[in-house]
């Protein structure tokens, strides 16, 4: 069957019909008709992002400032605050498109990248989401193992964490929203208790060497990579909302859902990492970059209750995993268009089957993986964000009505995608010299530090405008 000819949802099997009665969502990338966009609980999007980031991965990202980039606590926290204030705006803005268009983020991207061109960012997005899932599984597995004093291996811990996330993502929109609304509560309580029992060690951090601009910009690039990658899945969770909702309301719910947990936990992670060397129990737990062991050591003064709290922290990554598995299941249908007829939940199973073995293999190289991964992913995500935003503001006149939702699956009527893919690829001619990675430092980055994220966003946008204008002129329509 030619997937481009599919314009209506396929008939649902008896098994799918039964799952629907149990609350499982089968809809994949099919746009949500306006009559089905009835959800008025707009605060859901706040809790999705809040729960997804109230976890030990956010904590871990903050530790990179002092541990990897040699920054003092003050400089680390300032970078975390100001760059997150800037970068959280990008995915938050894109969430506002879901209620207006009823489409998933990568389907909206087809209106810039085209039916086939969008496969390029889709592949990159799948790599990013699988990478985040691997990091979360490793952290969760480490933390569970630390509670058991080694009696539970990291491998078993990883499988347990992934299984919980699979269950929620399999069920889909309704269950996922319910889970994210409550999942953050025990995690936040646990972090507050950890701060209460270990806070005395965070006072008067040791003096640090003066920060260099290169170190600040390189850490900032890592911080940017943590949050801007949500841009490629932002509207996946808002396309059931009523279309008349204020865009400002959705934006602010999303913005603070990102900003509050990320800034708070990253700063806490930085403070604990700075203090770890002066607290023997913390230093012992942190051996080998074991963030789970560090958190377990922080909670040791509460004895047996501390182990229970550490288990809760290990489960905190499930909030991020469930949302990520959900979006992975959607992106597979865009990567391979004929699979649009397969129920969404099938791909949650496939995602889990991929992520678990990769997590087990990479479990003992967590910090190397985290630094390399977060440092790389911000480049393409910032270019993607610039392109889809300029398409919306300049070529669609910031008007949802300029998107013909009937052609979402028609390659002949969608843009060719040459302008978007061309701008995205061409900008890397300057991005590469501005990169600073463990395995490569560009000639510009040697002087400035890593400014690839900023260059990717700016240059891809500057290239896209003339490229797309030429495409529109030649085709005669957007």
Automatic annotation (TrEMBL):
Cellular compartments per GO CC:
plasma membrane
Could you give a single Gene Ontology term from the biological process aspect?
Answer: nucleobase transport
One function term, GO molecular function aspect: transmembrane transporter activity
Gene3D superfamilies, sorted: Hydantoin permease
Q: Which InterPro entries match?
A: Pur-cyt_permease (IPR001248), Pur-cyt_permease_Fcy2/21/22 (IPR026030)
Q: Where in the cell is it found?
A: Membrane
Residues spanning the membrane: 46-72, 78-96, 108-134, 154-176, 183-203, 215-233, 253-276, 308-332, 344-367, 373-395, 416-439, 451-470
An example Pfam family from this entry, by short name, is: Transp_cyt_pur
Q: What keywords tag this UniProt record? A: Membrane, Phosphoprotein, Transmembrane, Transmembrane helix, Transport
Q: How does it sit in the membrane?
A: Multi-pass membrane protein
The similarity comment for this entry is: Belongs to the purine-cytosine permease (2.A.39) family.
Q: What is the recorded name of this protein?
A: NCS cytosine-purine permease
Species in which this protein is naturally found: Collybia nuda
